[in-house]
């Protein structure tokens, strides 16, 4: 539909990150999405990112995709309102630090914003794709957690 259609270009290495997170059927992380997008848009984009519902099951989707109103701050307390995870166990990947509540900002791994239409060369300028770096950070965070336990 011309008035409502959107062309989506996935960030390079998304498949690699998704593959790491699902670990061949064994999830390494519980995935939540916190976005300032409208709920219908967020759910549709997530359906494209996780078509087989390996990262977030269809039963958990409504609780795990959290939409924050414009002008509000993203908060781990709000994301984990169901008690499924403690905010101290969270790792956040986002392209903007300032949208997060100050008490959660130290958990945010900031990645450059993805702008495939305005600066397509920017993503390719990195020797290692941004999402591969994020995967490596997730691996280190996970490894650090299990070393502490």
Automatic annotation (TrEMBL):
One of its GO terms (molecular function) is RNA polymerase II CTD heptapeptide repeat phosphatase activity. The keyword Hydrolase applies. The keyword Transferase does not apply. SUPFAM superfamilies: HAD-like. SMART domains: CPDc. It catalyses: O-phospho-L-seryl-[protein] + H2O = L-seryl-[protein] + phosphate; O-phospho-L-threonyl-[protein] + H2O = L-threonyl-[protein] + phosphate. Residues 1-134 form the FCP1 homology domain. It is found in: Nucleus. InterPro entries: Fcp1, FCP1_dom, HAD-like_sf, HAD_sf. Keywords: Hydrolase, Nucleus. This is protein-serine/threonine phosphatase. It comes from Aegilops tauschii subsp. strangulata (Goatgrass).
């Amino acid at each position: 539909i011309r008035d409502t259609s959107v062309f989506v270009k996935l960030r390079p290495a998304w498949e690699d990150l998704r593959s790491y997170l699902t670990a061949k059927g064994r999830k390494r992380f519980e995935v939540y999405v916190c976005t300032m997008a409208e709920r219908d848009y967020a759910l549709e984009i997530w359906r494209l990112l996780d078509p087989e519902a390996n990262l977030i099951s269809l039963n958990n989707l409504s609780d795990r995709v959290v939409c924050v109103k414009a002008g509000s701050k993203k908060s781990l307390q709000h994301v984990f309102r169901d008690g499924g995870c403690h905010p101290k166990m969270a790792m956040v990947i986002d392209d903007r630090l300032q949208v997060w509540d100050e008490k959660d900002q130290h958990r945010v791994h900031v990645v450059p914003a993805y702008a495939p239409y305005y600066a397509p060369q920017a993503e390719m300028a990195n020797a290692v794709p941004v999402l591969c770096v994020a995967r490596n950070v997730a691996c280190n965070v996970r490894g650090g957690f299990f070393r502490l336990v």
